[in-house]
Amino acid sequence: MNIHEHQAKALLKTYGAPVAEGVAIHSADEAESAANSLPGPLYVVKSQIHAGGRGKGKFKELGADAKGGVRLAKSIDEVVANAREMLGNTLVTKQTGPAGKQVNRLYIEDGADIARELYCSLLVDRATGRVSFVVSTEGGMDIEAVAEETPEKIITVAVDPDTGVTPENIDSITLALKLDGDAAEDAKSLFPALYKAFVENDMSLLEVNPLIVMEDGHLRVLDAKVSFDNNAAFRHEEWADMRDLSEEDDKEIEASKYDLAYVALDGNIGCMVNGAGLAMSTMDIIKLYGAEPANFLDVGGGASKEKVTAAFKIITADPAVKGILVNIFGGIMRCDVIAEGVIAAVKEVGLEVPLVVRLEGTRVKEGKEILDKSGLNVISADDLDDAAQKIVEAVKK
Fold first, then answer.
1. Segment (H or E) for 343
2. Which ranges of 70-166 does DSSP label H, i.e. alpha helix?
3. 140 band by pLDDT with thresholds 50, 70 and 90
4. How many CB atoms lie within 10 A of CB 316?
5. Is 112 marked as a binding-site residue?
6. Set 30, 85, 138, 207: catalytic member
7. How far apart are CA 232 and CA 210, in angstroms?
8. Residue 65 burial by CB count (10 A; 0-12/13-18/19+): exposed, middle or buried?
9. Is 43 among the catalytic positions?
10. What residue ranges define each of the domains in the chain, with the CATH number in brackets?
11. What global pTM score does this model have?
12. Is 238 a catalytic site residue?
């Protein structure tokens, strides 16, 4: 689950992280009072969408010459003018795709005098099984280019969960970021605070880009991106208040109601699979045969008929889907339950695209018999390779 920048900064501020004063607004009428509450005279007007690259993004409605989704304003009048221009329009960035995202809220923030821009993030490093700091002196909007072209400028520092952030960790990060003076002193409190916020809030990502050294020599969190691990939602009731459904895909929202692991993609072959690894393999083999998956969908190991029905309905609700591949290897999951769920869904929503079903494992014979006797136009497959070829061929017709 992602949250907005202003929410992430408010959270980090409770841990003592240095952030600028700012106010989130939902309408242009709030812009003047928001700016008046800040010290000024420099302000930053920031689009709040769940995507990076906002500064270099472009608004669909405003033309190529318009400013991006993060703008400096040197007066309150400029703040108001920018707010009126940005709110309600569609911002397109590298991370939104060509469709972009509508800007429904802004963050009006006090400006900062920047001496240096740095990069700092925390994530779970699967190679070490530990939370790690990933830092670079090359902060700002082009960190992706740094990772691709000069990866040696990105340094990783793993933290032992038994000790937390140690003085040695701080020294390593400080050295990597070339901090000295007041900035080095600030680092002694900032980096343990970021780690504590990450762990206590079950984050999967905490990215500060840029982390800045100001002209006065002190550190400040200038931007913040936070993603929570959905698996920990049961112990964080406060997350519900931070969730912005307008930023999420309608199909993904519906899937979450049934505890389905669903991610919308850009292809035209809908996939329903049990098990994340098998789902990834299914998407890979679809691409191997020259097509693109429309989604990742893992119904889980013990899905009910109702859950399978819901999954099928979510797939068919996507107008981009021109064919469906059901790939089930029944261990805990029973093939007859999958078959019953598919039939129930088809009877409810209809079937207007080719459907290929590959079943294997527990009660596979019963599952195939249910499909055979259903009268549905189902293309049966013997294995995953066969299934992928059949659905790709069917979609091409």
1. helix 335-349
2. 76-86, 143-149
3. confident
4. 20
5. yes
6. 207
7. 28
8. exposed
9. no
10. 20-110 (3.30.1490.20), 114-235 (3.30.470.20), 249-396 (3.40.50.261)
11. 0.81
12. no
